[in-house]
Design goal:
heterodimer; A: 264 residues; alpha+beta; 2 domains; 10 helices; 5 strands; 12% strand; B: 160 residues; mainly alpha; Rna Polymerase Sigma Factor, Chain: A; Arc Repressor Mutant, subunit A; 8 helices; 0% strand; globular
């Protein structure tokens, strides 16, 4: 029976017509599948177009981000004027980084030619500047080291003053840090002075109206301080009572200077 | 999806097997056509990687049986039972002797037909059939024994 069954089943075969019909059906299914896999031209254009159209959008966003970053980083909002005899201004951005430096006199240019301050935090920048070898000839006991800060806001100015007076360089008896006014910066520059020296110039002018900005520019800070004292004046205050903060605990408001060595 | 060449190869290898299983299960040729095409379409679309031809053949048998059973469950399936209805009219007729035996086999209850085909024609062991049909091995043995008895009885009756 086994053999008969095998023979009987063997008689049944897939008919050629059935195979051909099925093969045609499968070919059609394969074609259809391929068609579905291939995006229609319109869809392709639309899809690629979407990407193409989105590209400028991405670029725009990237450009806006880049502009914002540049604005955030490159635009200075605060300034620090370091005046001894060299007069140097550091422009500080919102991130407290020095984004530009400017020498306001030949001594300042000489110092800056040997010191790199860009992109440093302003505390580090002031420290680097005052500890630099090129600055040392100006840092005698008789010199008057003046650092004037002008922050975007009063609070920022106080913060900067506090940070600067906490530095190791601020331990010098002749170191003074005061808060200036931002609006003085452009006025000072118009006269060729740093805004730190400009404040001192204004005070000196009250006592001696004959002094010119050019003469003030040629004086060291020590000479200006001594001139003010000799004329019976006091140093300009910071407007917030925070002037000369580092010397809060010292009895003498200013170190003894060469009072007679004033402007010629 | 598999290629056209793979479809042709599968047809040349497994068309007869699928066709016989369709005959075992289905009641008319139109249904056979449907299931036949369905099985090979499933083959084109299956992601299964076959380890051997045996594996591939077992897949075809399993899928054909399932497709036939699913079709039979359909409320709208066609209801025709004669052997002639299972064959296309333009194909050469099966020899009478074999036709009679096949008619007896197809007249058996469904549960016997597939085990008879798989055991006697395809040569699978009871354990393999059990695996393919999702049945207990002992059940397969029982079905085979009963199917054999039924066949003998039917053949004896038909030969008087």
């Amino acid at each position: 029976m086994d053999k008969k069954l095998r023979e009987a089943f063997d008689q049944v075969r897939a008919e050629d017509a059935l195979k051909e019909k099925t093969l045609s059906f499968l070919k059609a299914a394969i074609d259809e599948e391929e068609k579905q896999r291939q995006p229609r031209p319109l869809q392709k254009c639309k899809k690629s177009g979407t990407f193409v159209f989105r590209l400028p959008a991405f670029a725009s966003v990237a450009a806006v981000c880049a502009i914002f970053f540049v604005w955030l980083y490159a635009v200075p909002v605060s300034a620090i004027s370091v005046d001894i005899n060299p007069s140097i201004e550091l422009n500080v951005n919102r991130l407290d980084r020095v984004v530009s430096v400017e020498a306001l006199n030949p001594d300042g240019e000489k110092v800056l030619s040997e010191v790199k301050l860009l992109n440093l935090h302003y505390e580090s920048a002031v420290e680097t500047l005052l500890n630099s070898a090129s600055m040392q000839p100006y840092l005698s006991d008789e010199s008057f080291i003046s650092v004037t800060v002008a922050g975007k806001t009063e609070r920022k100015s106080l913060e900067m003053q506090s940070a600067i007076t906490s530095g190791s360089y601020a331990k010098r008896a002749n170191f003074h840090c005061q808060i200036g006014k931002k609006e003085d910066v452009s006025a000072a520059h118009a006269l060729g002075l740093s805004f730190g020296k400009y404040r001192m110039y204004l005070k000196l002018r009250e006592l001696d109206p004959t002094i010119t900005p050019q003469e003030a520019g040629n004086l060291s800070m020590r000479q200006m301080v001594d001139a003010i004292q000799d004329l019976g004046g006091s140093l300009p205050d910071s407007g917030g009572g925070a002037m000369y903060r580092h010397r809060q605990q010292t009895d003498a408001p200013f170190p003894p200077g060469e009072g007679k060595k004033r402007r010629q | 999806m598999r290629s056209e060449q793979e479809a042709e190869r599968a047809l040349s290898l497994y068309a007869d097997t699928v066709r016989r299983l369709c005959m075992v299960y289905l009641k008319n040729y139109a249904d056979t056509e449907d299931i036949f095409q369905t099985v090979f379409l499933k083959y084109l679309r299956t992601p299964t990687i076959f380890e051997s031809e045996e594996h591939e053949k077992a897949w075809f048998i399993r899928v054909t049986i399932n497709a036939c059973k699913d079709h039979l469950k359909s409320f709208f399936r066609r209801q025709t039972v004669s052997l002639d209805a299972l064959l296309p009219s333009d194909e050469p007729a099966i020899e009478d002797e074999h036709k009679e035996l096949l008619s007896i086999v197809l007249g058996l209850p469904e549960k016997y037909r597939d085990v008879i085909y798989l055991f006697y024609y395809e040569g699978y062991q009871a354990t393999e059939i059990a695996q393919m049909l999702g049945k207990n091995v002992n059940t397969v043995y029982t079905l085979l024994g009963r199917a054999r008895d039924l066949l003998k009885k039917e053949l004896e009756e038909s030969h008087g």
